[in-house]
From TrEMBL:
Protein name: Membrane protein involved in the export of O-antigen and teichoic acid
Keywords on record: Cell membrane, Membrane, Transmembrane, Transmembrane helix
Signal sequence extent: none
Annotated source species: Frateuria terrea
Coiled-coil segments on the chain, per record: none
GO terms under cellular component: plasma membrane
Lineage of source species: Bacteria, Pseudomonadati, Pseudomonadota, Gammaproteobacteria, Lysobacterales
Origin superkingdom: Bacteria
Membrane topology classification: Multi-pass membrane protein
Predominant localisation class: membrane
A Pfam family assignment: Polysacc_synt
Length: 513
């Protein structure tokens, strides 16, 4: 996949931000989970989920509009319209925030005691109001940075705020603090994330004397936000760990804690490599579409292939080594989360692979189709969640989540194929899946070692080596990919074995799309 210097630079900064946020954020979550135990961690996770829902509803439509239209205005040489665009989007965001806070107040007053037993309802509302009011504009600022394609700014936010959050959690852990203190730390960290993100992005907006948006552009923005608001809200509630809510209501906080551990770890793992590319999809696709559907369609096909190339080994590795991963990170009290982690990793990777398709649809102004698709899939998921969780507890919640992820990914990719009139490279995708499966089989005998750390070190090395060699052997890379690797290799000291390997791989490579 050919990449310009700016795309490579954006990938580098995006990688730095995502890796920092994932690694330190996951370490923070592990400390909290191990300290609180499954029961209290299940209740803690429910409060955080409520904040996330409120944040998403507040930003529904405005965040994606910031990415799409800021990138579009920059690509079209209309930077003077960016400032009035942001003013309009922020007014909309404040209106949504008011409605969300009213809903949070009603929820805290009417159901706070049932949702979070033993927690003061007024304190619950105050926590929700404060954190939502800070986290929503923080996420909007991150979207602005992506729209400006200034991934240095978004990475800087993660590099500054995430370590501070970890330090505060470490102090609370050292003091053997109860759950309420960790929730207070979450509120304080929200202030930090908002402050840093505002400082990083406010200075990037081009100066402009224009105060009003052209009527045609404003009409497009309103149409985009109307559909995306519903789509984003419903899809987030459906795609997020809503099972934490149902498990707290229908099973137990301990089951919710087990699910949260597995789901969060799987979601984060899906962001490690595939998500680095996936995070760049929307601005890249919007820019490509401004030059024609043909280019955007080719990017959809190519990006889907490379996202699969990165996601497939994660799924295969998870199915083999999930018990060792959970045992090492969370301890024996979370052993029940191991199979849940493996299955959630499969579902999360499907969502990552379909990001190229969803970015194409959003850029092509197919928000109505996406909205109808998301609503239908969300209805199915909610029905499955209620029925299966009520009858089968944790196992039912996992089944509902997985079925919904499969249906959503298939539907989004099918719709993108219809819009672009192109299909993914199915034979190549099949070869990638085969390479990951064979690599998992090669590493399988090592899963039975006595302790988790040696299992993961030896098993991971074996799996990685087998997967790389199998992708070359099965022709998972195009000739252009191999030629690019050879050019990169020319810049470092030569290794004869690698030169021979790349030459052999070039003969087996598939044709460029």
């Amino acid at each position: 996949m050919n990449a310009s210097p700016s795309a490579l630079r954006n990938t580098l900064f995006s990688s730095a931000g995502i890796y920092t946020e994932y690694v330190l954020g996951m370490l923070t979550s592990i400390m909290i989970a191990r300290h609180l135990g499954p029961d209290s961690f299940g209740l803690y996770s429910l409060v955080i989920w409520l904040v996330s829902v409120g944040m998403t509803m507040t930003n529904a439509g405005s965040s994606s509009a910031a990415i799409k239209f800021v990138a579009e205005l920059r690509g079209g040489g209309q930077e003077t319209l960016i400032r009035p665009l942001l003013a309009y989007l922020r007014r909309t965001q404040r209106t949504c925030l008011l409605l969300v806070l009213l809903a949070a107040g009603l929820l805290s007053a009417l159901a706070g005691g049932k949702l979070v037993p033993g927690f003061n309802r007024l304190l619950l509302f105050g926590l929700l109001a404060l954190t939502i009011s800070l986290r929503a504009p923080y996420m909007f600022n991150i979207s602005l940075g992506k729209g400006l394609e200034n991934f240095r700014a978004t990475a800087t936010v993660a590099l500054i705020a995430t370590p501070l959050n970890l330090a505060m959690v470490a102090v609370a852990w050292w003091l053997d603090a109860p759950m309420g203190v960790f929730l207070a730390v979450y509120a304080i960290s929200s202030m930090v994330f908002y402050g840093v993100s505002h400082y990083q992005t406010a200075r990037l907006v081009p100066a402009s004397s224009v105060t009003c948006l052209p009527p045609e552009l404003k009409q497009r923005i309103v149409r985009h936000m109307r559909y995306v608001a519903v789509t984003v809200t419903v899809s987030f509630v459906a795609a997020s760990d809503v099972e934490v809510l149902f498990l707290n209501l229908f099973a137990s906080p301990a089951a919710a804690g087990q699910f949260k551990v597995a789901f969060q770890l799987a979601t984060g793992a899906a962001l490690l490599l595939p998500g680095v590319v996936g995070a760049l999809m929307l601005p890249m696709m919007a820019s490509a579409l401004s030059r024609g559907m043909s280019l955007a369609g080719r990017r959809f096909v190519g990006a889907t292939t490379y996202l699969t190339l990165l996601a497939a080994p994660l799924v295969a590795f998870g199915f083999v080594f999930a018990p060792a991963v959970i045992g090492l990170l969370y301890g024996a009290s979370y052993a029940a989360a191991a199979p849940v982690f493996a299955i959630c990793l499969f579902g999360g990777s499907l969502g990552t692979v379909s990001q190229a398709a969803s970015s194409l649809l959003i850029s092509a102004d197919r928000q109505r189709s996406i909205m109808l698709l998301v609503i239908a899939n969300a209805a199915v998921k909610f029905l499955l969640d209620v029925v299966l969780t009520l009858h089968f507890g944790l196992a039912g919640a996992v089944a509902a989540c997985t079925i919904a992820n499969v249906l959503t990914a298939v539907a989004v990719i099918a719709l993108a194929m219809r819009v672009s009139r192109l299909q993914p490279d199915w034979p190549r995708l099949a070869r990638i899946v085969a390479a990951a499966s064979l690599a998992a089989a090669a590493a399988w005998p090592l899963r039975g070692l006595s302790t988790p750390l040696p299992t993961l070190v030896l098993g991971g090395a074996t799996f990685a080596l087998a997967y790389v060699l199998l992708t070359f052997a099965l022709g998972c890379w195009s000739r252009g990919d191999i030629e690019h690797m050879q050019r990169l290799h020319q810049r470092v000291p030569a290794f004869p074995a690698l030169v021979a390997l790349l030459a052999w791989a070039g003969k087996r490579a598939g044709k460029d799309a």
